[in-house]
Specification:
730 residues; alpha/beta; ten-stranded mixed sheet; seven-stranded mixed sheet; 21% strand; binds zinc ion
C-alpha cells in the first residue's frame, strides 16, 4: 500500500423532514456519527431534524440515514448542503428548539418485541408493568397536545422520571433514550385495579369497562353467549357486530381463517381490527347473521397481561360509546356513562388527550383496505404527489372525518362518527381545531358538501376564506384519484348509500367523469321511489315495496309487508327518488327475506353478502340505456316467492358485478378512457369489489380502489380536499 494524501474533511448540513421526532431519530444519528467517526450535532426543530456532520465519510452517512432509519420513522424529504468545516471534535445532541410547527407526531404503535420481553421478564424493572414503552413503541398521537413532540407536550408531563428512568432517558445507548412515554412502576401511571380483578370479572361472565389507548373499551368473554347477550342488552345494541381480541395469530387461526394478507394486517404495528372468515367458535351473538368476525391482537402491554394466564381466551373488545356518542376517554365520564353497562370500571391515571377508535381493515383482491381509519394510522399523511393550496375539508354527515392539506400532504383525521348528536359534533369541532393546530395550517379554502343543511356546510363560512362546495359522489371518486395520484381524465363509479345530488336529488349510483377542470355526471342508476323518504334507508322493506310498485304488483307487496295503508297512498304521493346502489342492496335483502329493518348502517347489505359462496349471473338481468343502468329484471327475479335466499344473494351479486362492469365499459369506450376509479360505501363489499376488479380487467380497463382511506364516507374528506385544490374550483 502506497501512501495516499488524506482527503480534506467535509461538512454537510442535512435537513430531514417527515415523521422524525419521537421515533429515536437523534440517538440513531448519534450512533451513525460515532460509527463513521464524524463530528457535528443533531437537533429537533420546527422543521424536523437538523444535522451537521463533519469528517471523511459524510457520503456514507447520507446513505445510512435513508437505509437504516428507526422503525417508526418516515423520511419524506432529505436536503443536503455543503457547509464550511469548523474543525471542532465530537458529536453533540442539542436540545429542541421550538418554532414554527412544520413537522409531525407519529401514530400510536403497538408494543415492540423488546418491550414485550421486558414485560414478562422477572428480572426487568418493567416486569408486568402495564405501561412499558420505548422509543420504538407505545402511544403517541393519543397522548400529545401539540408540537414539537416532547414530554411536556404529552400527558406524561405529570410523571417526573425516577432515577432509574432518568438514567435510561439520558443514556444514548438505551433504546429508551429520550423516550417521552418512558415510565416504570416507581414513577409512572398506575392501573386503579389489579389485572386479576379484571380477569376475575371476565371469568364470571361479567362486563368490564377498560381504559385503553384511544378510549375506553367494553370487554366480556366472547365464548359466553350469555355474557355477549347481556352486553348487547345493556349497550342497547341489537345486532351491530362486536370485535374480539385473541392472544396471537395462532389463537386467531383457531377462531377464523387467516391467510398471509390477513396475518400481515393483524401484525401491523397499528394493530387494526381485521375482518376474517369466522370458524363459528365464538358466541353467535358476537356477529349475528354474518360469516365474518373482526379480530384484533393485543397492542397495549395491558392487553398482553389479560392473556398471560390463558392463551385461549377470546374477549369481546368493543368501543365504549353509549348511545352512538363518541368513545368515552375521560375517567369521570366513564364512571358517569358506563356505570349502567359495565360491572366494573378499570382506569388508570395517564390521560387520553386525543380520542381514537380502533381502525378496521379487510383484505380485498386489490390489497389491504381500510374500513375505518383511526388509531395507529392517524396522523400519518396521504401523499398527494404535488403541492397545492392549503385546504380544510369538512367531510360528510355519517362516519365523517376531516382533512387538512399542507403542501403535498393530506392529513385525514381519525373517524369522528355521525354528526347527529351534540357530543359527536363537539368531537368534530375538537378534531378540526386539533388537526389545524398540529399541522400549523391556515386554510386558504374550505371545502364542504353541496347539501346546505349539513353541519360542515353550516360552519364552512366561519373561517373567512373562500368556500368550495363539492358533490358527495364526485368527492368519493376524487378520494380514489387523490390516493393513487392519477393525472388526466378518469371515469369514476360511486356505489354508495346516499348523497345530495347536484340537481337536489338523492344520488348514490353514479358514473362521474373527473378531470382537472372538474366533474360531470355521465350516468346513473335508474331512480327508485323511496316510500317514506329517509325512513326507507333504515327500513329495507320500503325499498322492496317500491320494486313491487315498479313491477305493477303493489298489492302483492302490500300483503307481504303488511303495508296496505302505504300502498294505498303510494300512487297519489310525490315520492323522493334515489339512484343509490345502497338502496338497491336494501331492496334485494328485503325481497329475499334477509333483512327488512336495519339496526345499523349497512346491515342489509352485509347480511346479504354473507350468504354468497359463488356469485352467479342472471342473463338479461339488467338494461343499459343512455348511461342509465336499470336492475329491475334482476330485482323482479328476487321477488319470486320460490327463490331461496342463498341463490338470490348469489344471483344478485354476480349480476350486479356484470351489469356495473358493462355499464362502466360502455361509457369508458365512448369517452376513450381506460382508468376507472371505484368509490363509495358499497365498495367495502368484498364480493362486489373483487368481482368488479376482475371484470374491469377483462374489459381492458384499469380499476383503482381506495386503500389508505375508507371507500365510504370515512374517506370523503380526502376527495373533497382534492377537489378543493383544483384550479377551476374556486
Ligand atoms: Zn418498545
Ligand atoms: Zn421510573
Amino acid at each position: 500500500m502506497g501512501l495516499t494524501m488524506p482527503l480534506p474533511a467535509r461538512r454537510l448540513r442535512l435537513r430531514v423532514r417527515g415523521t422524525v421526532q419521537g421515533v429515536g431519530f437523534r440517538p440513531f444519528v448519534h450512533g451513525l456519527a460515532q460509527r463513521l467517526h464524524l463530528a457535528g450535532f443533531v437537533l429537533n426543530d420546527g422543521d424536523g431534524v437538523l444535522v451537521e456532520v463533519e469528517g471523511w465519510d459524510v457520503d456514507g452517512f447520507v446513505r445510512a440515514i435513508k437505509e437504516e432509519a428507526p422503525p417508526l420513522a418516515r423520511i419524506d424529504a432529505l436536503e443536503v448542503a455543503a457547509v464550511a468545516p469548523d474543525g471542532r471534535p465530537g458529536f453533540a445532541i442539542l436540545s429542541s428548539e421550538t418554532g414554527k410547527v412544520q413537522t409531525r407526531i407519529p401514530a400510536d404503535a403497538a408494543i415492540c418485541p423488546d418491550c414485550l420481553r421486558d414485560l414478562f421478564d422477572p428480572h426487568s424493572r418493567f416486569h408486568l408493568y402495564p405501561f412499558v414503552t420505548c422509543t420504538h413503541c407505545g402511544p403517541r398521537y393519543t397522548i400529545t397536545r401539540g408540537l414539537p413532540y416532547d414530554r411536556p407536550q404529552t400527558s406524561m408531563r405529570t410523571f417526573p422520571l425516577c432515577p432509574a428512568c432518568l438514567r435510561d432517558y439520558t443514556d444514548i445507548a438505551s433504546r429508551r433514550y429520550h423516550a417521552e412515554t418512558l415510565a416504570c412502576p416507581v414513577c409512572g401511571p398506575r392501573l386503579d385495579h389489579p389485572v386479576d380483578h379484571i380477569l376475575d370479572y371476565l371469568d364470571r361472565g361479567l362486563i368490564v369497562a377498560l381504559k385503553g389507548i384511544g378510549g375506553y373499551h367494553l370487554l366480556c368473554d366472547a365464548t359466553s353467549e350469555q355474557a355477549v347477550v347481556r352486553l348487547r342488552q345493556r349497550k342497547n345494541r341489537e345486532s351491530k357486530p362486536f370485535a374480539v381480541m385473541v392472544a396471537d395469530t395462532d389463537a386467531a387461526r383457531s377462531i377464523a381463517h387467516v391467510g398471509k394478507a390477513e396475518r400481515d394486517m393483524l401484525c401491523h404495528r397499528a394493530r387494526p381490527i381485521v375482518l376474517l372468515q369466522s370458524r363459528g367458535k365464538v358466541a353467535s351473538s358476537v356477529a349475528p347473521n354474518l360469516t365474518q368476525v373482526g379480530v384484533v391482537l393485543p397492542y397495549a402491554p395491558l392487553h398482553h397481561l389479560l392473556f398471560r394466564s390463558n392463551r385461549d381466551r377470546v374477549l369481546v373488545v368493543t368501543s365504549a360509546n353509549p348511545g352512538g356518542e363518541p368513545l368515552v376517554t375521560d375517567d369521570d365520564d366513564a364512571r358517569l356513562r358506563l356505570a349502567d353497562i359495565a360491572d366494573t370500571i378499570v382506569g388508570h391515571d395517564r390521560p387520553i388527550v386525543v380520542r381514537a377508535d380502533d381502525s378496521v381493515m379487510t383484505a380485498h383482491r386489490s390489497g389491504p383496505v381500510l374500513v375505518r381509519r383511526a388509531r395507529g394510522f392517524v396522523p400519518d399523511a396521504v401523499d398527494l404527489g404535488e403541492d397545492g393550496p392549503a385546504v380544510l375539508a369538512l367531510g360528510a354527515h355519517l362516519k365523517t372525518t376531516v382533512t387538512v392539506t399542507r403542501g403535498s400532504e393530506a392529513f385525514v383525521s381519525q373517524h369522528v362518527g355521525s354528526l347527529d348528536n351534540a357530543a359527536t359534533i363537539a368531537f368534530y369541532e375538537e378534531t378540526v381545531a386539533h388537526l389545524l393546530a398540529l399541522t400549523g395550517v391556515r386554510p386558504e379554502r374550505v371545502v364542504c358538501d353541496l347539501h346546505p343543511d349539513l353541519y360542515g356546510s353550516r360552519i364552512a363560512g366561519r373561517f373567512g376564506v373562500p368556500v368550495v362546495q363539492v358533490q358527495h359522489h364526485a368527492a368519493h371518486v376524487a378520494a380514489v384519484v387523490a390516493e393513487h395520484r392519477v393525472r388526466g381524465p378518469v371515469l369514476g363509479v360511486a356505489l354508495d348509500g346516499h348523497g345530495y345530488g347536484a340537481d337536489g336529488g338523492a344520488w348514490g349510483g353514479e358514473l362521474i367523469l373527473l378531470d382537472e377542470d372538474g366533474w360531470r355526471r355521465v350516468g346513473h342508476l335508474a331512480p327508485l321511489a323511496m316510500p317514506g323518504g329517509d325512513k326507507a334507508a333504515r327500513e329495507p322493506w320500503r325499498m322492496a315495496l317500491s320494486i313491487y310498485d315498479r313491477l305493477g304488483r303493489l298489492d302483492e307487496g302490500a300483503r307481504r309487508f303488511d303495508a296496505f295503508e302505504l300502498a294505498r297512498l303510494m300512487p297519489r304521493l310525490t315520492m323522493l327518488r334515489t339512484s343509490s346502489m345502497g338502496r338497491v342492496f336494501d331492496a334485494a335483502a328485503a325481497l329475499l327475506g334477509v333483512c327488512s329493518v336495519q339496526h345499523y348502517e349497512g346491515q342489509a347489505a352485509m347480511e346479504l353478502e354473507a350468504l354468497v359462496q359463488t356469485p352467479r349471473i342472471l342473463d338479461a338481468g339488467f338494461a343499459i340505456t343512455d348511461g342509465v343502468l336499470d336492475l329491475l329484471p334482476l330485482l323482479a327475479a328476487l321477488a319470486d316467492p320460490d327463490i331461496d335466499r342463498v341463490t338470490g344473494a348469489e344471483l344478485f351479486h354476480g349480476t350486479v358485478v356484470r351489469a356495473v362492469s358493462e355499464w362502466v365499459a360502455d361509457q369508458a369506450e365512448r369517452l376513450g378512457i381506460t382508468t376507472v376509479a371505484l368509490g363509495g360505501g358499497c365498495m367495502v363489499n368484498r364480493v362486489l369489489a373483487d368481482g368488479l376488479a376482475q371484470a374491469l380487467t377483462r374489459h381492458g380497463l384499469h380499476g383503482l380502489f381506495s386503500s389508505q382511506v375508507p371507500a365510504g364516507d370515512g374517506g370523503l374528506s380526502l376527495g373533497q380536499a382534492y377537489m378543493g385544490r383544483l384550479p377551476k374550483c374556486v
